[in-house]
Amino acid sequence: xxxFLTTHVLDTAKGCPxxxxxxxLFCHKDGVLSKVCEAITNVDGRxxxxxxxxxxFEVGHYELVFHAGAxxxxxxxxxxxxxxxxxxxxxxxxxxxxHYHVPLLLSAYGYxxxxxx
Length: 117
What we know:
117 residues, mainly beta, 4-stranded mixed sheet, 4-stranded antiparallel sheet, 1 helix, globular
């Protein structure tokens, strides 16, 4: 297949990329949740390689889990415990052999995502 999945994290409160965030990718298949891989965002807030490269791509249901809490604490954006946002899960489907880009726009009290290019 030629499809692949990329992601990145932008800190919308500070207006910059968010480095050092652990991201896990899971696949939902036949009622089972399986971890596919994990990566850490670089200085550009991106993973160094596609989080799901062409050779591993399959259509289906997936979940990205962004471990944002450590980043928010390290940048002084975390409020008192428990934090409002610590882990941010995003579930989505990939229905065709294509490039999918699923970014996270993050602040300490909110986030959004979209299918990018």
